[in-house]
Amino acid sequence: MPLDIERDQRRFREIVRGRLRKNLRKYVTQGEMMGRKGKDLVSIPIPSLDVPRFRFGDNGAGGVGTGDGEEGQPVGKGGQPQGGPGEAGSDPGSEHFMEVDVSLDELAEILGDELELPRIQPKGDANLQDEKAKYDSIRSTGPESLRHKKRTYLKALKRQISTGEYTASDPRVVPIKSDKQYRSWSTVQHPEVNAVIIYVMDVSGSMTDDQKEIVRTEAFWIDTWLGSQYQGLEKRYIIHDAVAKEVDEHTFYHTRESGGTRISSAYKVCADLIEKQFPPADWNIYVFQFSDGDNWGEDNEKAFSQLGERILPHVNLYAYGQVESPYGSGEFLGRLKSRFGENHEAIVTSEIEDKDAIYESIKTFLGKGK
Amino acid sequence: MPISELAPLPVELQEWQEKIEKLAAGHGLDFFPTIFEMVPADRLNEIAAKGGFPVRYPHWRFGMEYEKLGKGYHYGLQKIYELVINNDPCYAYLMASNEMVDQKLVMAHVYGHCDFFKCNAWFGHTNRKMMDQMANHGARIRRYMDEVGVEPVEEFIDACLSIEDLIDIHSPFIKRRADKHDNGENKHSPPKPARFDSKEYLDPFVNPKAEYKRNNAEDNPQPQRLPERPERDVMLFLLEQAPLNAWQADVLSIIRDEAYYFAPQGQTKIMNEGWASYWHSKMMTTQIASAAEIVQFADHHSGTVASSGGSLNPYKLGIELFRDIEDRWNRGAYGKEYEDCDDYAERQDWDRELGEGRDKIFEVRRVHNDLTFIDSFLTLDFVRQHKLFKFGYNPGTEYYEIETRAFPQVKQQLLANLTNLGRPQIAVVDGNYKNRGELYLEHEYTGVELQTNYAQDTLRNLHRLWTRPVHIATILDETQTVISFDGGEVSVDQGDDVDPDDDD
């Protein structure tokens, strides 16, 4: 008899995806998901996918428990009432939300659909092929280091049994040369289109944790989307105040410096990085810069010439996000626009006042389809 | 499910089944024929997700349940040992990966359940051919899905499920009224009293209220309320009165039938599990388990009846109460003479050697449900011995805290938790509220508030069935409150005079 459970499961997942779409803006802006990210899966809390019923409030009801303890001793945290037998008799699991696993690819697809993001046409050499060795076959010759012990043993065992050499009381199996089996590989060619995201962030004193949280949330979605568009995605992180350096991801989000801001220093590190490690002919390059827009006035000109000469010609996209800080928003965005024009081909800018603006900002950044 | 589709048990288990069945019968257990099937974990999860009925109608929540069970099993957090279906014959599923000692334990346990299903009075009116009925329900719902589409049907089921616990669990025993739900037969439309057209400000003069009422009474000598008395079977009321088309009415009646089928299981959880645990442990320790298996049995048994983190395990409470009853009736430790004795030592040593324990527990399992079971047999001594306490929520600390160990309060709390399966008691008091065809429900407040966000969502679903504004009267913050949903917005009206009799 065919069971319907798979159909039910499919329906459930459809509904989950529907909820996800409906609440995507909330998920995008609240950054809830980043802590829940596994290798390929994101675990997402879906609010109350149970059937609503008239029920008692969690915080009014009491129950009966068992064990030692004085009066007044806590037995459970609010919101997670201990199941008295009344509870135990009723339906299990009336949580307020449940966690469902969604693959990053699926998430990217939902994001793409909801934000109406255009698919990216990778630039550069589409014929770039990568060769990979795939160990997928067995041969009777090969280097000893690739000998397949189990297969060799089995073959020797078969041979000994069929020739009557094998005795159960003395189960010795000795392979001879013709028994030996070796792993072998075939070469698979597949087009490899690589991309690198270079994140640049101002970590001077005026960038607070709130702003960094915004940056982090945006970066999560940018990663998710671009990751779904390219087979290989590298990420690099540059922080700067008056001086700049390349750091790892953790440091990127957890560094706070005092002192001034010199954006040109970051552009220099960024440009060097591109020249040394990511030849633009082979790479799709994305630069996302986040700052509160404060820069030392005399630095702007230097910064723009770095950007214009050494970065813009090589990148698919240069995105500048100006995050509003408690000290107000700086002038860099305005300067940038007047220097390169409102509609520069590779530049996209966005002003992010608060978390609620993240959604639109991502749409702006990724909406160019580059 | 036709028996032909069940895979036969392995020979060794078959032999054990015969043996255990004989042992169970020898103890006086009385059960329907019981059919075991051994299934792998994911199949058991499938069946459990469908509430025990693989043939049940399709619905997304079964898929959700399946995911949860599958995940729990995969991470080793939980596994289902057994599943038994109240049906004639009884169907029981064994988990294939269980060890032999567990299979024996489970089989002994299952015979306890099967006896309970057959003999307990609260199951007296349940459908014993539920496997067939569920298949029938499944077929009907699938047909509607083919006819009007999966989503409309599934969403309608969602709405029905929202009120599936609004049934009158005692109605199978007490016929309060004929519960025909043929559309139209009971349809009630009181004749409208004649009114003269008038401007609003002239209305009191053109249609004087007293005259209007008098006329109304003459035209309609027995002004019928709808419902005449508060109706706890809200599902039935909707079946009779809500503007449902044919497939919707049928779906609602299916959900209602299933709710009535499952209700006795909820009413007897402590007893049923206690009874089954009592018998598996008796048979295992004295007759089934080999010396080598007894430690493993003890380990698994104590796992089942363990109480953790202060919460009360119904298996444990049930088995201990049955043992306590057996012991007391063996010793004659009950009745006036015993109750009046306040010498602790004398009570401890009380033994009239009546030996009535066995008969008594069989009687108890026949006539009681959890509520009356606890009410009749939970004693002060028992509460002390098992260190029971009442806990409550302390808003100051946001923790649940032990409130008291005093016997009357502990017992009262337990009874309160068991009343109406631990759910709020709600009835339709007016199906023509404000004379505008609105639905007015009333929550019988017992000191615990409704959870408002759930109440609001439930009203939304109720509105999908009733299609006119719906209200529920309850008490929030010690104030009379009416939560309403008119199809657009939820409103919460506090403190006003909300007498439903005030029909304008």
TrEMBL record, chain A:
Residues 75-87 have a biased composition (Gly residues). Pfam families: DUF444 (PF04285). Residues 55-95 are annotated as: Disordered. NCBIfam families: PRK05325.2-3. This is DUF444 family protein.
From TrEMBL, chain B:
InterPro entries: Spore_V_R, SpoVR-like_C, SpoVR_N. Residues 424-475 form the SpoVR-like C-terminal domain. Pfam families: SpoVR, SpoVR_C. Residues 178-200 are annotated as: Disordered. Residues 179-200 have a biased composition (Basic and acidic residues). Residues 12-421 form the SpoVR protein-like N-terminal domain. This is SpoVR family protein. The lineage of its organism: Bacteria, Pseudomonadati, Planctomycetota, Planctomycetia, Pirellulales.
